[in-house]
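PROTEIN DESIGN WORKSHEET
SECTION A - STRUCTURE
LENGTH: 615
TOKENS:
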């Protein structure tokens, strides 16, 4: 029997390696940016077209390469960072595996121009799907320029798995942010289809975070710094009141390398445990400096996972440092760009005046047994708050049992669990308790409805219908509002624009990362709504629904819209408003469950009420 094991050709081996290294255009962007950093560049340009599918170009002013190095960099396992096995435990560079350029060249058309500062001319190399095309001298600037064209052109199955351009562009922006955040001393630019997305000058860490996420982040940041014999920790965390429903703005860097670590993430979240609800996630940008000999970065193809020798100690240090910063700095919002604390604001400008103790006003002639209680004379505020709260003359009738005939009501079957009780109110009279629940008498006892969950269910089904028939009515705004989003959220909003318009929004693009909101859905009613805040919450809620629940686009959009625009617990409702809410709830396809899967309606049978009184 003949031998059956053979060595793979280099072109096939490179394509297999590309499956690990280059999963999408963003993967190639990450590798090229890291190579530019390792080359010592202080200015890096990233240019992409068609979300990286047509072109990815990285231009740097780094050290450049010689003729031999330019050719060698496309060979597998060719690297300038590792000479022996022990070097794997002393890595301080970004790249080191020596597979990136060979893998990228195997699935694209690559053209590279490079020149060292001491050379008079540079080198041009062209490669087409691992096939060497040409190498020749060329006049070019110091540093390296690499163009990657038609990614996955020779592997159509891989190309078909790529998402839409806005989705792929969001991944590219993610990778760009991670690299740029770790190197604030380097100037970065990003252009997409001829439009400038980022222009980041060399700056301090705080300015880099603000430039990446927006000027309003200046007041959200709290500094963290801790030096120990195990690690040095520095960076910023977000104030609790600015936490979001998604984890997008959470960054850990170990020796300036972005990593994903659920264990260390838990250390940060635990520090916020008593300050945030379970479904809110704080912002943090934290840098860990550690001896490379105490970590292993060579445990994952994308180098985003690391093993530590002393995980528990690192966890404890991070947790205590974050908790201490929250207590120390989260006092007042900062105004000065480089100032995090506001202790001076705690001193009263009237400190030189005598402090007068509070006094208590009372009526010595007050008689609680007098036939008419005199009005409180403490001020107009008390009277204005209570003047509309006079008890009804017929309040006693609430406790009477009526025997008159019941009006005809439409009986609604809400499934097997409630098939013996049709939630048929005896009267169209409802009572609101604690401004959260609506209570009504039914044949078998009492029905209680969660008003917020009910309204979310109504709006969710209505918005889903609008997304299907594209007929969401709009209510024009008297004064159009502009909303400026992060580049990532802006790309997401553009991809959702048609569906957002179907909901009833009138939205159009307006300049860099900015949209104009000219109308909102009629379904939101005439309440005072902050259009900008509503739109931002819509995008944030959509991201949360897609990440956590893995919902399709329209379902996630309808769910986010319903949650953000529904009436909240604590809202007072009139009798007509409660009537309308109940009628619309019973008209829903699934009225007895909220969009979170929890009950909207609860019933308390008479027998259970009787047991409370030992009958």
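SECTION B - SEQUENCE
RESIDUE ASSIGNMENT:
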């Amino acid at each position: 029997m003949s031998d059956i094991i053979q060595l793979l050709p280099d072109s096939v081996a490179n394509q297999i390696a590309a499956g690990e290294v280059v999963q999408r255009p963003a993967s190639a962007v990450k590798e090229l940016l890291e190579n530019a950093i390792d080359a010592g560049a202080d200015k890096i340009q990233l240019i992409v077209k068609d979300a990286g599918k047509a072109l990815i170009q990285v231009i740097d002013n780094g050290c450049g390469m010689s003729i031999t190095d330019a050719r060698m960099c496309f060979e597998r396992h060719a690297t300038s960072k590792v000479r022996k096995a022990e070097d794997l435990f002393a890595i301080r560079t970004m790249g080191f595996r020596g597979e990136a350029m060979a893998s990228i060249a195997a699935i694209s058309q690559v053209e590279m121009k490079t020149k060292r500062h001491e050379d008079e001319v540079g080198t041009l190399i062209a490669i087409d799907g691992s096939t060497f095309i040409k190498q020749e001298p060329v006049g070019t600037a110091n540093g390296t320029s690499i163009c990657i064209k038609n990614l996955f052109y020779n592997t159509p199955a891989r190309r078909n798995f790529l998402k839409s351009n806005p989705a792929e562009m969001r991944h590219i922006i993610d990778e760009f942010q991670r690299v740029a955040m770790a190197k604030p001393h380097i100037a970065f630019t990003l252009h997409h289809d001829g439009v400038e997305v980022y222009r980041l000058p060399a700056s301090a860490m705080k300015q880099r975070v603000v430039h990446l996420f927006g000027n309003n982040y200046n007041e959200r940041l709290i500094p963290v710094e801790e030096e120990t014999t195990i690690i040095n920790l520095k960076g910023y965390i977000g104030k609790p009141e600015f936490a979001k429903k998604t984890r997008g703005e959470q960054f850990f860097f170990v020796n300036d390398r972005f990593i994903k670590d659920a264990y260390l993430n838990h250390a940060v979240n635990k520090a916020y445990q008593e300050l945030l609800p379970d479904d809110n996630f704080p912002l943090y940008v934290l840098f860990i400096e550690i001896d490379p000999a105490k970590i292993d970065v060579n445990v994952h193809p994308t180098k985003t996972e690391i093993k530590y020798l002393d995980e528990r100690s690192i966890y404890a240090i991070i947790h205590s440092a974050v908790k201490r910063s929250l207590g120390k700095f989260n006092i007042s919002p900062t105004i000065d760009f480089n100032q995090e604390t506001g202790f001076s604001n705690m001193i009263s400008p009237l400190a030189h005046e005598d402090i007068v103790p509070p006094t208590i006003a009372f009526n010595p002639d007050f008689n609680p047994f007098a036939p008419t209680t005199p009005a409180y004379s403490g001020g107009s505020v008390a009277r204005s708050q209570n003047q509309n709260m006079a008890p009804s003359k017929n309040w006693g009738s609430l406790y009477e049992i009526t025997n008159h005939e019941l009006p005809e009501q439409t009986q609604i079957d809400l499934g097997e669990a409630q098939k013996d009780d049709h939630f048929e109110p005896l009267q169209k009279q409802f009572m609101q308790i604690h401004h959260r629940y609506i209570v009504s008498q039914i044949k078998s006892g009492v029905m209680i409805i969660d008003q917020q969950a009910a309204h979310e269910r109504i709006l969710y089904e209505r918005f889903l219908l609008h997304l299907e028939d594209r007929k969401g009515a709009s209510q024009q705004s008297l004064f159009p509002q502009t909303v400026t989003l992060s580049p990532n959220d802006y790309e997401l909003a553009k991809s959702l624009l048609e569906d957002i318009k179907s909901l009833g929004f009138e939205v159009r693009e307006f300049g860099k990362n900015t949209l104009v909101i000219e109308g909102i859905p009629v379904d939101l009613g005439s309440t005072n709504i902050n259009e900008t805040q509503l739109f931002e919450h819509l995008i944030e809620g959509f991201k949360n629904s897609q990440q956590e629940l893995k919902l399709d686009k329209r379902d996630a959009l309808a769910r986010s819209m319903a949650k953000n625009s529904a009436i909240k617990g604590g809202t007072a409702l009139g009798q007509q408003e409660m009537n309308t809410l109940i009628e619309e709830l019973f008209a829903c396809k699934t009225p007895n469950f909220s969009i979170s899967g929890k009950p909207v309606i609860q019933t308390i049978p008479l027998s259970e009420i009787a047991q409370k009184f030992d009958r």
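SECTION C - NOTES
Residues 311-329 form the longest helix (19 residues).
The first strand starts at residue 43 and ends at 49.
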